[in-house]
Amino acid sequence: MNGELIVFVILFLITISGALFMLNLSKVVHMVMALVLTFLGIAGLYVTLAAEFVAVVQILIYSGAITIIMLFGIMLTKHSDEEKKTSFAKKGIVLSGIAIFFLIMFSAIQNLSLGSQATTLHENNTEQIGIMLFTEYVIPFELVSVVLLVALVGAVILAKRDDAKEGE
Amino acid sequence: MSSIPLSAYLVTALLLFCMGLYGALTKRNAVIVLISIELMLNAVNINLVAFAKYGVGASIRGQVFSLFTITVAAAEAAVGLAILIALYRNRGTVNVDEMNTLKK
């Protein structure tokens, strides 16, 4: 068992256990904190896949921004704190459906191997991404900035208190 | 050369996706449902980055794609939370079972 495999197993366990905690904890804030564990584990997996830039973005966006936004959402709404139990029948149906999906996908990918491996991804990873982003993908890049602007304005308008209506 | 097989990453992503799907379908708190959807998007990102290293014609493109996915997921989270807060202001609940005005 070499070092690479040990690192992968540790990151795998961190990722999966975070998601399991998320499903099984009872308080909403604890669930979000468990999810931070998953996001950090996924960032570690990206590093083992020679994607350092994506790993840093993952930590900044997910463990930073999205977690904080979700915490704001939790703090600004009132919760009964304890998650109410869903009925056993519904859980059973959902679980069996997901188990079937899992088995089908697992049988499809368990021995998948495409042979070749990229060997130059780790050399100046950020520079490679930057060159690709600003040459070949420059139009999608600009479109994504429009999407972000629309989402920003849309979120502000949706969440803004509708004063005119209340004044009537 | 890496000694970890491609299928190991794919199985990790599959497990995360299944757990996210389970959370999105069974949890009643709308914030948790949104978080579960983020988990599913993350699983897709793992696949993209894994195929950027191991896939046919592997190149940096997979990582660029995963960056675009992360951006759209962030926008989705912001708009989802805004809708949730507007809904909470009008209905006073974040329970997805009680969001059934269109059904009545």
Number of strands of chain A: 0
Architecture (CATH level 2) name of chain B: Orthogonal Bundle
**Poorly predicted parts of chain B:** none
Largest interface: A-B, 83 and 73 residues
Radius of gyration of chain A: 21 Å
Query: What's the architecture of the largest domain in chain A in CATH terms?
Result: Up-down Bundle
Following the backbone from N to C, one meets helices and strands of chain A in this order, namely HHHHHHH
Question: What's the gist of this structure?
Answer:
The complex is a heterodimer of chains A (168) and B (104). By secondary structure, chain A is mostly helical.
Give a description of the structure.
The complex is a heterodimer of chains A (168) and B (104). Chain A is an all-alpha fold and 168 residues long. Chain A has 2 domains: 1-81, Four Helix Bundle (Hemerythrin (Met), subunit A) (Up-down Bundle); 123-161. Helix content of chain A is 76%, strand content 0%. In chain A, helix 1 (3-24) runs antiparallel to helix 2 and helix 2 (28-48) packs antiparallel against helix 3 (52-76). Chain B has one domain (6-92): Helix Hairpins (Orthogonal Bundle). Helix content of chain B is 74%, strand content 0%. Chain B is built from 3 helices and no strands. Chain B has helices at 6-26, 30-54, 61-91. In chain B, helix 2 packs antiparallel against helix 3. Chain B is elongated. Classes of the chains: A mainly alpha (168), B mainly alpha (104). Chains A and B meet through helix 1, helix 2, helix 3, helix 4 and helix 5 of A and helix 1, helix 2 and helix 3 of B.
